[in-house]
Write a structure and sequence with these properties.
heterodimer, A: 555 residues, alpha+beta, Sulfite Reductase Hemoprotein, domain 2, Sulfite Reductase Hemoprotein, domain 1, 4 domains, six-stranded mixed β-sheet, five-stranded antiparallel β-sheet, B: 103 residues, 3 helices, 5 strands
């Protein structure tokens, strides 16, 4: 993991000192809200529906046990004993007091964490594949690239007051687990025909009011050109991106309006100017960063304990079948800890649960944890012989839910229970769907099915790229939920199609049940997933299940 | 023709803790919607909103929110957003609903 050097530590301390003084001046009346707001946003502080909210970056989703312990401390000391992990590998605290936030930031600084650029019109927290460094299908660990981008983008003078925010994701796997194509810019580590490693650059993806799938801007960028090239892209957009309309300000609209070829030509022109200003220090830095991410020493040991538990303990087997993924090292597994117990708030973990996960990471997982954009926690490097003990420990803190990738593993934004922008609630809809399908005991039979819920068109809940997406709106003063079907957040990314008229709050769960019932009847055997069935049969047959009255009327 | 004025309360968030607050008849701030003044005159509402906006050391983001007279004669929300603001989130018993229990 990356360790701060003296510069990083001093930079963060100075930034926290400045923000503490800004908070003091706001409270004593020297700063107005208009003056203070951009300053607090740059430091991750929002004012939400009921309270302030502090959004803390978990760069590329990586945490040590000590850092997770500190997140627990913040939850307990300055919040209500829990934190909410988000779709952008951040953690949010929903109840901090303004005067306490400087202390919270200092506490984060003690463990090399911060809230810088988790909000505002800046380059946001750089996200990455949550299986980075552990996945069997990747070319290399993409996190050094993410860290390099983090350092370059932090306080970058050209990119502090842009027309809108800018989100970057990084991945090196064949599979896309980082929703690359829904980001303003994505870096995919690839190998060319000559066997050289370089980067494919995607640009112009995004969700929100106008969802777009990212397009390839550069098929193979040499490694040493990465930072100047990204700088050229952001710079071009910062110059020509629209500032007249918030909803047209993101780079996806710029790319859409100008066309990818025009953007490429502009980027190339800008790159020619920017490239000579990078004299190689970035590559020295990159080499240094890479050393921090050296893989752990994987051991060779018997997996007998795992095999025995798998054969004899049906609960363990169910969890292992659902929550484990293939690791690149023999005898190892990637463990996903579900923080989506049926009926609980997706992405929330209590301070006790955070500490328990930190302890498991220290004891069995090379002191590493990951946060996924799917709002779960991952132990990336676990030897299989340790899995029975881990499962037993997870049971003690109620973190043993076996539902990864299933219908109750729902992404949900905070929605109108917390968010000032929301137009409807998300969390209770997620809770009710998960509870309902748990009662029906159908979810393992249904198989891989992703439901994602957003409480407004900004789409923090990724509903556009869900197999079943739910968008909560305010229709004439009443909560109303639109359903989209057939979205895909992976390398075969697709925007879901709107199914038809929306549903009232008390109609949405039965509507989802009808869609799923439809899938079970339409699928070509238990092996065909929801998305495969949808791609085979299209929207129409699902609509018949979703709107039975329309079918009756047409008959 | 301009739309008829509907009754309003003045609401904001408190600077220090972000909690939802409402203006009372005497121009003070309360944490309870039931203690808010229901404004039925548009000119009066506009003047009072200006007063609220001139207290940046106490309030953030003051605005007029639609309200109606409830069964007990005190203001009640007409929109679900304001209902959540005066109650708290629905997934945990936190916020105002929790505080009300301690009164």
């Amino acid at each position: 993991m990356y360790k701060y050097n003296d510069f990083d530590t001093a930079f963060l301390a100075e930034r926290n000192r400045q923000f503490r003084a800004q908070v003091e001046r706001r409270i004593d009346g020297s700063l107005t809200e208009d003056e203070f707001k951009p300053l607090r946003l740059m430091n991750g502080v929002y004012l939400q529906l009921h309270a302030y909210m502090l959004r803390v970056a978990i760069p590329y989703g990586t945490l040590s046990g000590r850092q997770m312990d500190q997140l627990a401390l913040l939850a307990e000391k300055w919040d209500k004993g829990y934190g909410h992990f988000t779709t952008r590998q951040n953690i949010q605290y929903n109840w901090p007091k303004l005067g306490d936030i400087p202390d919270m930031l200092d506490a984060l600084g003690e463990v090399e964490m911060h809230a810088i650029q988790t909000s505002g019109n800046t380059i946001r927290n750089v996200t990455a594949d949550h299986f980075a460094g552990a996945a069997a299908d990747e070319i290399e660990d993409p996190r050094p690239i993410a860290e390099l981008i983090r350092q370059w983008s932090t306080d970058h003078p050209e990119f502090q007051f842009m027309g809108r925010k800018f989100k970057i994701a990084v991945s090196a796997g064949e599979k896309d687990r980082a929703v690359l194509k829904a980001h303003d810019l994505a870096v995919r580590v690839v190998r060319n025909d000559a066997g050289e490693v370089g980067y494919q650059i995607l640009v112009g993806g995004g969700l929100g009011r106008t969802p777009m799938i990212g397009k390839v801007l550069n098929d193979f960028l040499p490694r040493e050109d990465l930072l100047p090239y990204i700088e050229a892209v952001v710079s071009v957009w910062n110059q020509i991106g629209r500032r007249d309309n918030k909803y047209k300000a993101r780079i996806k609209i710029t790319v859409h309006e100008h066309g990818i070829d025009d953007i490429r030509a502009r980027v190339d022109e800008r790159f020619a100017l920017v490239r000579p200003t990078f004299d190689g220090i970035d590559q020295e830095l990159f080499a240094d960063i890479k050393a921090h991410f050296a893989a752990p020493e994987f051991k060779t040991a018997s997996t007998e304990a795992f095999d025995a538990a798998y054969a004899n303990d049906t609960m363990f087997r169910s969890w292992a079948d659902t929550n484990l993924h293939e690791h690149r090292a023999d005898g190892y597994s990637i463990v996903t800890i579900s923080i989506k117990k049926h009926g609980d708030t997706p992405g929330d973990a209590t301070a006790d649960q955070m500490r328990a996960m930190a302890e498991l990471a220290r004891q069995y997982g090379h002191d590493e944890l990951r946060i996924s954009h799917e709002q779960n926690v991952i132990l990336p490097h676990v030897h299989k012989s340790d899995l029975p003990a881990i499962y037993a420990a997870l049971r003690e803190v109620d973190l043993h839910t076996a539902n990864i990738g299933l219908i109750s593993d729902i992404i949900a934004c905070p929605g109108m229970d917390y968010c000032a922008l929301a137009t409807a609630r998300s969390i209770p809809v997620a809770q009710q769907i998960a509870t309902r399908f748990d009662e029906l005991k159908l979810e393992h039979d249904i198989g891989h099915l992703q439901i994602k819920i957003s409480g407004c068109i900004n789409a923090c809940g990724h509903h556009h790229v869900a197999h079943i997406g739910i968008l909560g709106l305010d229709r004439a003063g009443v909560e109303n939920y639109q359903i989209t079907l057939g979205g895909d957040a992976t390398e075969t990314a697709a925007i879901g199609e709107r199914a038809g008229p929306g549903f009232a709050y008390d109609e949405i769960v039965p509507a989802i049940e009808r869609v799923v019932q439809g899938y079970l009847e339409l699928r070509d055997g238990a092996e065909e997933t929801f998305l495969e069935t949808y791609r085979r049969v299209g929207l129409a047959p699902f609509k018949a299940y979703l709107y039975p009255e329309a079918r009756a009327n047409a008959a | 023709m301009a739309r008829a004025f509907t009754p309003k309360v003045i609401t904001a968030n408190h600077l220090l803790d972000g909690d939802v607050i409402y203006m009372t008849d005497t121009g003070e701030w309360t944490r309870l919607l039931s203690e808010a003044v229901l404004l039925t005159d548009e000119a009066d509402a506009d003047v009072r909103l200006l007063e609220a906006q001139q207290q940046p050391d106490v309030v953030v983001g003051a605005y007029l929110a639609d309200a109606k007279v409830g069964a007990d004669g005190t203001p009640e929300p007409t929109h679900f957003r304001e209902e959540f603001r005066r109650t708290g989130p629905s997934n945990y018993f936190h916020g105002k609903q929790e505080e009300a229990q301690h009164v």
